[in-house]
Amino acid sequence: MKPTTSAACGPPFTDPAYRRAYFCNFIPVAIFLCVAFFIGSPLIVNYKQRLSSAWGITESTQKAQSSLCKGPCKPLGSEALPNGIISRTSNLELRPIWGSPLPPNRKGSTKESKSLLAMAVGIKQKKIVDLIVEKFLSCNFTILLFHYDGAVDEWKALKWSESALHVSAINQTKWWFAKRFLHPDIVAEYDYIFLWDEDLGVEHFHPGRYISIIQKEGLEISQPALDSSKSLVHHQITARGRKGAVHRRIYKHSGGGRCYENSTSPPCTGWVEMMAPVFSRAAWRCVWHMIQNDLIHAWGLDKKLGYCCKGDRTKHVGVVDSEYIVHLGIPTLGGSLNHRPSPEVPRHNSQSETPHLEMAVPPVSPMLDNRYAIRQRSFTESEIFKQRWQRAVAADKCWRDPYPEPAEKAKT
């Protein structure tokens, strides 16, 4: 006879002996669980409270750290460094390779202000450059020479040569050099950046007095006026006036490019030429970003410089008359070595003004040297820069032009 299912699975629960054994085993387990519950509940609650408190402390610590960490953003690439070790700027000062790396501390001493003269130079203008550098060195300037002809050793005989910085690259313009070697963080310690051509006479120019004038007048972007009787003058606004220390606009009631009392656009006002511009530290930080890496002649940039001055360009861009220079007009890049005018005999101006940006390429036969090709390249770059500006304005929906052109002029 086969056993029933319940018998096969174990003794039936109705069996009195089995039930006694079951309850005898269950009661101690139940008692243990109850004791554990009553004893453990306060411990669990206490643990939760401590855990909650720990979370609160951690959260408050994170908030405190977050508030402490709120500050200027770290430069790109320095995120892994503690903020205090980051050296954000540099300069062009020469340092000794022996002795103490730090100057002695002097109580009450203040940092001496300095400015920078940067020039693209060739050995053919050595005499002119020597006169310029001597004047600037007397006023505590740092000198940086960009050698576009590769002739660096030929300057060693000059007494100041070892204290100047020399950078050499064949047939490059001062704007090419400036974009690569005058980054705003590199020149951040200089009050003013003089980015000059090499063919300038400085007999009537004093750098120290010039800086005093532009500081007093609040000029962020400026240039010394040109002696119109001895200079090659392209724009009337650069010609020296004799009535005051500074002028910021011109008046021209006849001919092309007229300028009136209410004219607000370059070259009537808010404009300097690119041969001898002077930039404040803040203005240069803006201008550097506007220089196009591939447009090395920088034509077209002059009309936009006023965007980089703090405030109204008609007030903070100007020409200094009391400290003036002579523009000799000597061909440099691409110029013929055999037909350059003598540095001692400056070219005289015909008093006619030459349009700068909108003029067509002049109908001049190509010379044996590269001057004609360079001029063509300059005009091409001017058009490219103009188109880039227009595209940038159209694409940036957040930018508002502080100097909008009149509708009639914008259509032309």
UniProtKB/TrEMBL annotation:
Pfam families from the UniProt entry? DUF707
Q: Which UniProt keywords apply?
A: Membrane, Transmembrane, Transmembrane helix
Q: Which domain of life is it from?
A: Eukaryota
The record lists the membrane-crossing segments as 20-45
Question: What's the name of the protein?
Answer: Uncharacterized protein
